[in-house]
Design brief:
- The protein is α+β, with helices and mostly antiparallel strands and about 90 residues long.
- The protein has a four-stranded antiparallel sheet with strand order 1-4-2-3, with helices on one face.
């Protein structure tokens, strides 16, 4: 299992479109991927779950992945969350 803290760098936070794109990124991987924020641990492949976090730019989350492609999954999610620009 790989776990990493990542800062959200999406100007308008994780609204519907960015959440859908994040779920698409996570769904490319076989590994189980979770986003942890405050006291919640949400499956990164769940649109409704991710929307429930209400993340905004500057928030820090922990992303964990467990499976055969866990390292690549973390890299891709970190790239998406920390380098997107709208």
């Amino acid at each position: 299992m790989v776990r990493k803290e990542i800062a959200i760098n999406i100007p308008n936070g994780l609204e519907a479109r960015p959440v859908a794109q994040l779920v698409q990124v996570a769904s490319q991987f076989e590994s189980s991927i979770y986003v942890e924020y405050r006291d919640k641990r949400i499956n990164a492949k769940s649109i409704m779950g991710m929307m429930s976090l209400g993340l905004v730019s500057g928030d820090k989350v922990f992303v964990s992945a467990d499976g055969p492609d866990e390292k690549d999954a973390i890299k891709s999610i970190e790239k998406y969350l920390s380098s997107i620009s709208e």
